[in-house]
Amino acid sequence: MAEAVRLAQPDYVIHLGDIAPDAAALSKKFPLLPLISVNGNCDFTDYSRETRIVELGGIRFFLTHGHRYGVKQDLLRLSLAAREAGAQAALFGHTHQALAEQRDGLWLINPGTCGPTVRPTCAVLNLDRSGLRCRIQSICDWSEEP
């Protein structure tokens, strides 16, 4: 994860759960970088932090690890919860399978996994006047001009 942060140089980092100590370590390594996190099914503390709603750059995000929404089966429950929260984007993990697509105006984004894997990925979100743009980025294939 630290490599992705170093390469992307983001304004914010969003950690979508599992291994909460990784988020804490990242926050310690980059103390000036705002980090927003939720807990996942492998994080056994503070169950109140499993879902968050945040607004960044005028975009409302529904953040969750996803295990409570059955994301390994389908994305219907996640989509309904995000829409009910008034979100324009639902960010989730749990499946460790990267995804960035819009369904009926709602972004569904899973960054994949930045952990130890053959092809670690992350999601890079750009927020500007035209709205939200997202791409899944392989950390192995990062270029200076993404």
TrEMBL record:
EC number: 3.1.4.-
Molecular function GO labels: hydrolase activity; metal ion binding
Record carries keyword Metal-binding: yes
UniProt keyword terms in alphabetical order: Metal-binding
Cofactor(s) needed for function: a divalent metal cation
Gene3D superfamilies: 3.60.21.10
SUPFAM superfamilies per the UniProt record, alphabetical: Metallo-dependent phosphatases
Signal peptide residues on this chain, from the entry's feature table: none
Family as reported in the entry's similarity comment: Belongs to the metallophosphoesterase superfamily. YfcE family.
Protein name: Phosphoesterase
Organism this protein belongs to: Candidatus Avoscillospira stercorigallinarum
Lineage: Bacteria, Bacillati, Bacillota, Clostridia, Eubacteriales
